[in-house]
Every structure is written in structure tokens, then in C-alpha cells.
Design goal:
Layout: H1 2-12, H2 15-23, H3 32-39, H4 43-56, H5 60-67, H6 77-83, H7 87-101, H8 104-108, H9 118-125, H10 128-141, H11 144-151, H12 161-166, H13 172-185, H14 188-196, H15 205-212, H16 215-228, H17 231-239, H18 248-255, H19 259-272, H20 276-283, H21 293-299, H22 303-317, H23 320-324
């Protein structure tokens, strides 16, 4: 169909006009290559379109500018293919298009409006095969020092690759592969820094892991902290607040989509805080809007965490009167 359609243009429109149409953007700020990168269900369609585009551009410097042209959210066609998780277009665009007209360093550092380059995108949403493919290419072209520096790059929110990987919802294999790669390429001190350094919003990678992941990914993530920090350091991280005043327990209560994640986290927290009076104080620590973890689970209508926290946590360490009168900064208690 695309071949027939393109033939109609070639029969009825001058080449210079077709070239204008190829570069024209739609309401989503996508040109024709962005659309192919994002939505094409067939690698052959992308190949055919690229063959035609390459022929239309006589000036190869103009063609290179076209390849780096930014669409929606400031993303070029290669970033668009990753953002849309379109493997049909990703491999072809990377190897046959971008690597033909640029060395990898020239396009690998290209970022979108949020400061995310191709590795940030792959860390967040790429499949195992996409990650393996890109990381192998990067490792072959970058010096060890350059690769380490590239891995350490942050987006505009101050998030490193581990923050991005924490958002990799329910993709255990790609998460594990990426983390193993990072561990091998950076020093142990740098890896610990990436785990423990909060973003501009005071968010740790572990904060984000509650929002996005199933138990398997969370267990893998938590094990990284156990392998790299002692109990005292982990406990210190547990108490750290994000920009909203929420610690890790608040995030678990409010945002976890899995009861199993909260149970696993609580089991580890109970072991970490050996002094039970200190544990009780921790349970009543107030996060956003002056709410403890139980109040936050209600405020976020999170039934995954509410029943467990009420019955297995708060009722274990307090009699009901002790925590039901706890109120937030508006004076609202659990019943309100």
C-alpha cells in the first residue's frame, strides 16, 4: 500500500515538493520518518520509506539535519522508536540509518526535552534484546572512560539510569541485564552513589520502584541495597524524605500496586529496626499533608496496602485507639 501511495506522489508531484511533504509535521509534531519510527508494524515499510527519503535528499548534510529533527517532546526518530517500543523500526534506524550518517557518539548524546538520551529510554522501557543490541554497539565505539561517563549522565530531573530502570514496569529480565551491565562498567563507589543519590525531587531509585514494579523486580532492586550498604546505611535511606515529605514506607503505602511488595518491604523493615519502640515511632512518622503511612494508603485509595497495614502492621504494634486518633494537618483521622 505504501509503495502504491508513494508511486502516486511520484507520478503527480515534483520531487522538491515531495521532499517538503516528507519534512512536514503533523499536529503531534511528527514528520513522516517519526511516524514510521513510532507506528510502523513492518520493518519493510520503514526500509522502503527510508530508501525513498535518502534518494530525495541530494545534500547529505541536509539529510543529517533531517535525521536529528525533533518531534513531540523533542525526540528524533530513533528516540521515538524506543519511546513507542517499536522494535520493527529501532534496529533498522540504529544500524542502517543513524550509524551510516553519524558515529555513535554524535547521536547517542542526543536528548529530548526532558534531557533523556537513548540509554535513559532503553533503561526505562527497552526490551532485553534492544538493550543488548545498543549496549554492545556503545561498548564497541566508546572508550571505557567515555562509556562510564555516558552511563553516569542524568536527565533534567536529576535521575540516573537506576532511577530510569526502577520505572521498568514488570520487565525483570531487562532490568537485571541493565543492572549487571552498569555494575561491570562503573566503579563500586559510583554504583553505590547511583543507588543512594536522590534526584532533584529528592527521590531515590527505590522510591520509584514502589510505583512501578511487581515483587520480582522489587526483590532484585532491594538486594542491590543489601549487597552495597550495611544495615545502618539502609536504615538511613529508609528515613530519607522526597520533596513531598514521604519516606520509603509512605511511598509503599500510597503507591504500590502489589500487596506482595509491601509485605516484602515491611518484613525487611521489621528486621532492620530492632528496637520496637523506634519501629513504632517510625510507623507514626508523618509524610505529605501530615499523614502517616496508614492515612496515606486511604488517601490514595490503595486497597493493596490498606488492609495489610491496618491488620498486620498497626494492629500488631498498637492498640486501635493509639493509631485511630492520629490525624493529618487538617485534623482528619482515619475515620474522616
Amino acid at each position: 500500500i505504501l509503495e502504491l501511495f508513494f508511486e502516486l506522489f511520484e507520478q503527480n508531484v515534483h520531487n522538491f515538493k515531495i521532499l517538503e511533504l516528507v519534512q512536514e509535521i503533523n499536529k503531534y509534531e511528527y514528520n513522516l520518518l517519526h511516524c514510521a519510527a513510532a507506528f510502523s508494524k513492518s520493518k519493510e515499510v520503514v526500509e522502503f520509506l527510508w530508501m525513498k527519503i535518502e534518494t530525495l535528499f541530494e545534500d547529505k548534510e541536509e539529510l543529517k539535519k533531517f535525521l536529528l529533527m525533533k518531534g513531540d517532546n523533542g525526540r528524533n526518530a530513533l528516540l521515538v522508536s524506543i519511546a513507542q517500543q517499536n522494535e520493527n523500526s529501532f534496529y533498522f534506524l540504529f544500524e542502517e540509518v543513524f550509524c551510516k550518517y553519524f558515529n555513535i557518539k554524535e547521536f547517542a548524546y542526543e536528548s529530548d526535552d526532558y534531557g533523556e538520551n537513548l540509554l535513559h529510554f532503553l533503561a526505562r522501557i527497552g526490551s532485553v534484546s534492544m538493550l543488548k543490541f545498543a549496549l554492545e554497539k556503545l561498548k564497541n565505539e566508546f572508550s571505557p572512560e567515555d562509556l562510564q561517563n555516558f552511563i553516569k549522565l542524568k536527565n533534567k530531573n536529576g535521575e540516573n539510569l537506576l532511577h530510569c530502570a526502577a520505572k521498568k514496569k514488570k520487565k525483570e529480565k531487562s532490568f537485571e541485564f541493565l543492572v549487571n551491565f552498569i555494575e561491570k562498567e562503573v566503579s563500586n563507589e559510583e554504583f553505590k552513589h547511583m543507588l543512594s543519590k536522590p534526584s532533584n525531587f529528592k527521590v531515590l531509585p527505590l522510591h520509584l520502584a514502589f510505583n512501578y514494579n511487581n515483587l520480582k523486580v522489587f526483590e532484585l532492586f532491594f538486594s542491590l541495597y543489601e549487597q552495597n550498604f550495611d544495615k545502618r546505611q539502609i536504615l538511613q535511606l529508609m528515613h530519607e524524605n522526597d520533596k513531598n515529605g514521604d519516606n520509603l514506607f509512605h511511598c509503599a503505602a500510597a503507591f504500590s500496586e502489589s500487596k506482595e511488595v509491601v509485605v516484602f518491604f515491611w518484613m525487611n523493615l521489621e528486621e532492620l529496626i530492632e528496637n520496637k519502640e523506634e519501629l513504632k515511632k517510625f510507623l507514626l512518622v508523618k509524610g505529605r499533608y501530615g499523614r502517616n503511612a496508614l492515612l496515606l494508603s486511604i488517601a490514595q485509595q490503595n486497597e493493596n496496602t490498606f488492609y495489610f497495614l491496618f491488620e498486620q502492621v498497626y494492629c500488631k504494634y498498637f492498640n486501635i485507639e493509639e493509631f485511630t486518633y492520629e490525624s493529618d494537618e487538617n485534623g482528619d483521622n482515619i475515620l474522616h
